Amino acid sequence: MKLDQILPADIGFGCAPLGNMFRSVPEEEAVATVDAAWEQGTRYYDTAPFYGSGLSEIRLGKALSGRRRDDYVLSTKVGRVILDEEEDPTERDLGEKGNLFAYGRPNKMLHVWTADATKRSIEDSLNRLRTDRLDIVWVHDIAQDFHGDVWLQKIEEARTGAFRVLTKLRDEGVIKAWGLGVNRTEPIEITLALEEPQPDGFLLAGRYSLLDHAHALQRLLPMAEEQDVGMVVGGPYSSGILAGGTHFEYVAAPPGIVVKVDRLKELTDRHGVSIKAAALQFSLAHPVAKAVIPGATQPAHTIEDHAALNEKVPVEFWADLRASGLVSDLAPLPDGA
Predict the structure, then answer these.
(1) Cβ-count burial of 68 within 10 angstroms (0-12 exposed, 13-18 middle, 19+ buried)?
(2) 58-86 residue pLDDT tens
(3) Cα-Cα end-to-end distance for the chain
(4) Which member of 45, 51, 208, 237 is catalytic?
């Protein structure tokens, strides 16, 4: 099933921060944030076992437990099996993601994409989420940023394992769609080039933002458009730097990125536009993009996100953004600027 037939709106909620990403989030704050998103009209929630070793799923399940299941769309990911055995979260090797979830649960994670692991991961996620079904399942992190030189081996493990399991579940109507959830374009390009099995869409995090989009426009997005495969845009604020934070790619933003953000802010200030509005509306302007899923751990931030999506941005801003050279000439802009 195509993503635009499943997703209820242009904006969803990325639940990675609920797994104590970057900091320890109080339980009541996490639940209140999900409640605030719901009150704003959010009906699509994306999570993963990876986020705090199951903490994000547990918190999301709790927050949504009083909602009617038919009223929202839910996606999670496979590739990590959470064990009862404990370890020091700060000692984990998470590739380029560093100590992203150092404040998460101490439960040990197995990184595995085999058929058996995929089935177990889904069963465990259903229990943590307190639900009887998932709408979309993403195959998580089979990319260079996590696995370095052996990333192609992980793709092959997923191709013969997770891909086939999820295709069968989709064909049986157990799930509505599956795809890849990654921070790099190449695994999706490889998957789209396979004769079988074919994904219904993909979640691309951080690679279609105001700060990083040129590479995705070169090969991936033309392939996806040609095959009518939709994209969910994760990380539209580039780990926070485009929302007033200091992180880019999960670490402190380097000087070059800070300079670019300062230039973007000069433009948004000149036109009286919020940088959040520029970021969200830019990411959704590509025809392959079907939804954007900013994350939050404070109720006020979800309110800001919805306001930013609906903010009226003058066409002159987009024209000046194009003229500034801050975006690729290949990037579609709102209002055709």
Answers:
(1) exposed
(2) 999 999 999 999 999 999 999 999 999 99
(3) 32
(4) 51
Give me the catalytic one of 77, 97, 176, 276: 77
User: DSSP labels for 115-129?
Assistant: HHHHHHHHHHHHHHH
- 119 given a catalytic annotation: no
Both tokens assigned to 162: 């997770």
Per DSSP, which regions of the chain are E strands?
A: 13-14, 44-46, 73-78, 80-86, 107-111, 136-140, 177-182, 201-205, 230-234, 247-248, 251-252, 289-293
pLDDT at 98 over 70: no
Cα–Cα dist 177/330, whole Å = 29
Give catalytic status of residue 77 as yes or no: yes
Tell me the longest C-alpha to C-alpha distance in the chain: 56
DSSP 20-78: TSSS---HHHHHHHHHHHHHTT--EEE--TTTTTTHHHHHHHHHHTTS-GGGSEEEEEE
Q: Which of 46, 124, 135, 305 is catalytic?
A: 46
Parallel/antiparallel/unpaired status of strands 80-86 and 107-111: antiparallel
CB 48 within 8 A of CB 140: yes
Please give the structure tokens belonging to residue 45.
């929630």
Dihedral (CA of 281, 25, 105, 148) sign: positive
Which tokens hold the place of 320?
A: 């000046």
43 vs 41: CA distance, rounded Å: 6
Which letter does DSSP use for residue 11 in this model? B
Q: Has 46 been annotated as catalytic? A: yes
Rounded to 5 degrees, φ, ψ at 252 are -60, 135
What confidence tens digit (pLDDT) does each residue in 2-42 have?
A: 999 999 999 999 999 999 988 999 999 999 999 999 999 99
Amino acid at 57: E
3-state secondary structure of 157: helix
